[in-house]
Amino acid sequence: MPLLIAFLFLLLAAGRMVDARSDVVSAANDAARVASLQTTADAAHAQAQLAAEDTLAGEGLSCQGGVRAVVTAPQGFVRGGVVQVDVACDVDTSDLGLLTDAIGAVVTVRETAREPIDTYRSE
User: Fold this and answer.
1) Where exactly are the structural domains of the chain?
2) How many whole angstroms separate alpha carbon 118 and alpha carbon 38?
3) Angle at CA of residue 14, ends 8 and 17, nearest 5°
4) Is 32 exposed, middle or buried, given 0-12, 13-18 or 19+ CB atoms closer than 10 A?
5) In 26-101, which ranges are E strands?
6) Which helix (H) or strand (E) holds 62?
7) Do residues 13 and 96 lie in contact, with contact meaning Cβ atoms separated by under 8 Å?
8) What is the pLDDT of residue 86?
9) Distance between CA atoms of 118 and 32, rounded to whole angstroms?
10) Do 24 and 110 form a contact (C-beta atoms < 8 A)?
């Protein structure tokens, strides 16, 4: 019986991590799309952060310490370039009992998304 209970907790942890990862993937994609439509790198960073926060809040995922979104544009923030957004979220798993020792009380979920910067945006 204890083995069955441990297995159920493991399934619960796996399900929570898959759900959190899916939410962070959505947040990164939304943030990259919003960033690609902005006219400046500063505006792209600000709007990407807001988009990531809104997406995760809408999915009901609470990140310890807040959502972290980092925007970079390797070729520069120019029309036709590419914007990359890295989103990270620290997910609390302390309520999983004994599994906390195995996976940690906080698990960081990260995702990167890229979008072409809008060629037809206004300057």
Assistant:
1) 2-116
2) 8
3) 140
4) buried
5) 64-72, 82-92
6) none
7) yes
8) 97
9) 11
10) yes
Cβ atoms 45, 77 nearer than 8 A: no
What are the residues whose beta carbons fall under 8 Å from the beta carbon of 36, sequence distance 6 or more? 44, 83, 115, 116, 117, 118
Whether 99 and 92 have beta carbons less than 8 Å apart is answered as no
pLDDT the model gives residue 96: 67
* pLDDT reading at 43 higher than 90: yes
Instruction: For residue 13, give both structure tokens.
Output: 């942890």
Q: What is the model's pLDDT at position 98?
A: 59
Rounded distance between C-alpha atoms, residue 77 and residue 84, angstroms: 10
The answer to whether residues 88 and 110 touch, using CB atoms and an 8 Å cutoff, is yes
Query: Tokens 């370039």 sit at which residue?
Result: 81
